[in-house]
Amino acid sequence: MRRRTGIIVFVLMALLAGACGDSTDGTEATGDTATGTTQPGTDATVAPGDEGGGTLTAVRFESFDGWVLDSAAAYSSYQTHQAVIEPLMRFGADGQSIEPGLAESWDYDPDGLTITFTLHEGARFSNGDPVTAEDVAFSLGIWNAGPNFGGSWDAIVGVTGEGREIVMELAYPDNTLMAVLASSISGIMPMDFGGMTEDEYYNNPIGAGAFVVDEWSIGGRIILTPNEFYYDPERPYVDELILDVVTDETERQILFDSGEAQIIEYLSPTVAPQYDPADVYVCTVHSVEHIGLNVLRPPFDDLLVRQAVAYAIDYEAIDAALGEYFGLPSGILSPNILNWAPPSKPYFRRNLDMANDLLAQSSAAGGTSAELIYDAGNALDTLVVQIIQANLAEIGIDVSLSALETGAFLDRAFSIDADMTIWNYGAISPNISDPMIWIYATGWLFSGFETDTLFDQFLAYADAATNEDMQAIVTEIQDGAIDEAAAIAVAEGSYLHAVNQNLTGFASAPWGLYYYDTIGLGG
Q1: pLDDT, tens digit (0-9, with 9 covering 90-100), for 181-197
Q2: Which CATH number is 509's domain given?
Q3: Which of 8, 80, 378, 430 is deepest in the core (most CB within 10 A)?
Q4: Are residues 325 and 469 both part of a single domain?
């Protein structure tokens, strides 16, 4: 959803991973990671129950990117890939833990520079071939060759193993690696694409996930059916999975209300009140709505002007407008993820007197103007920009609003070609390193602010010895965002799904991704 350009995150991870050094002495044991600092969130849980075949239909508003893992640029693609081309591990619904995927257990030995995985007995691809160390080594080569995510696994210098044991040899310890291996971009493919050409494979992919591809098209319907060779004979719990793209909000709701669709992915908080509250699955608070101020040109090259903006925004008005699914911001980094930590100082809140005083001392004394661009297709952004426009008018900043199609918005945002931008982001894997790299990849969230300091902080994080050391670095980043006011979080909220109350086994990570194979249609 809001990670449409998430490909850039791992371009930068390629650079960062290669620069990491030695140090951490923690271990990853079977099926979990250490827990970290969290914020309270809201979870509407759907409890497990009876499962028994049938067709599960999920409807989404954004298109699928195809089966090339390296090309994933939308939540819909990450979500679909993991169902067919399963990684060795999975992320937990808590947004912090790592759980078994193709591997039932693992041991990360940073001192010995190895990660040893034990595959589930019977782990096979959908063509019946067993998953082997050769397949993992081949997959690693494909991952690293990707122009977008490639290099995210640079710490891994070799893969060996026999039978169910897979050993990854590392060049150096890397605190970010386990989270990457649990994301959908680390899906395991058969060696030599299972005897197919690369093009043939991506038109008819073979994976070791719970589902196989029956029918698919970019931007259209995808039909998945159970993998008869899946290591867990009980899963998936449905006979067919249909994934449909429906761009019209009203049509999506009609499909849900009629029972033709059981899941509507990523509801806008402005639309959610139209659904039965019992049907709205509320993920743990995680997303950050933020504005970026272009520091490369006037008026926002002046820190005093940026600070004036930060204190002019009516955060409580935004909170009230967005309703129960959003709240006041706590920092620039997504909360409720492993090793999140708050800033050491209070985050921005409205203080109109201070805002006026700051602007009067700045290069924009007497007033100025700025353009704010936003995605016209996003109802949340459309609402927030109007509040910000009114707030800044109160201190003499005349804001013109430019509503753009998503692609045009992203082109201008990543080119730092606007005075102001507004966007919303979240993670895709269970470690605060993910949003750290995201804010780096976006030029400090579309502001053009220097990122050399952030780069060094990420390297220190990847090399830190303890969770406390990592959290201290996160606090430094949070404090720096307050000090520089180049990107300002204006709200913090939850991703939402509409979920039929009869479904069982539905559980979403804070960033909205979940696993289809755990879901049953229930009674």
Answers
A1: 999 999 999 999 999 99
A2: 3.40.190.10
A3: 430
A4: yes
